[in-house]
Design goal:
The chain contains eight helices and ten strands. By secondary structure, it is α/β, with parallel strands linked by helices.
Length: 263
Amino acid sequence: MKVTCPSCGLVGKVMFDRLFDASAKVVEIHDLTKAFGKFTAVDSLNLTIFKGEIYGLLGPNGSGKTTIIKMLCGLLRPTAGSAKIFGHPIPYKSIMNQIGYMPQDTAIYLDNTVHENLLFFGGIYGMPKNQLEKKEREMLAFVNLKDWRDSLVSTLSGGMKHRLSLACSLIHEPTLVFLDEPTVGVDPELRATFWGYFESLAQKGITVIITTHYMDEADHCTRVGLLRQGHLIADGRPGELKEKTRTRSLEEAFLFLTGRKQS
């Protein structure tokens, strides 16, 4: 598979400018709030994400990234506010087969093989056998696990389990993908492959929402939302945010926006 190098992001950004569909709203969030007792993890979030975007939720641990993803997937009930996916209030059962979700914590079956996990996750979405077999080969090549197809997941390293979890979230060809820290524990070369694949999904009109605390990775998103303590402090294209803050990197932009820029 031909991979766009993420070290510059230039090719991907040109493609996104051409394919990004600002008329097609995929995710609409209005005053979304989640509190755990007296602690507010997400505070009055307002955000719209469009078809074919790679939208990055960027912020340190505890900024609310995972909580947002879980609410959008229907795994957490909001305390206040609302969200729609494909125009339907969440949770909405009939759209679940259009959504792929890779949690931060690996969610695969340790006592089964790599092949059995992919077969299971494809099967629960009703994929035809021939389609599933073809997609399995593609996913195994993508996450570099072809040689471990028949290995028990319990024998794999942590990074390999993480890669399998990513493959399982994409096996059924969803049109909206939530990826929570998908590149943690992945070597730089494979990270480049991952980002090339994410860009290829966006070119097909698939919307990817990704969380990361790697500031350099966020440069390859169409837009990013910078989060701090449950608040969305900025939203826009990476280049625009750096230009507005007169900084050279998203990390510097984040520090500027939170008032922690060092002189």
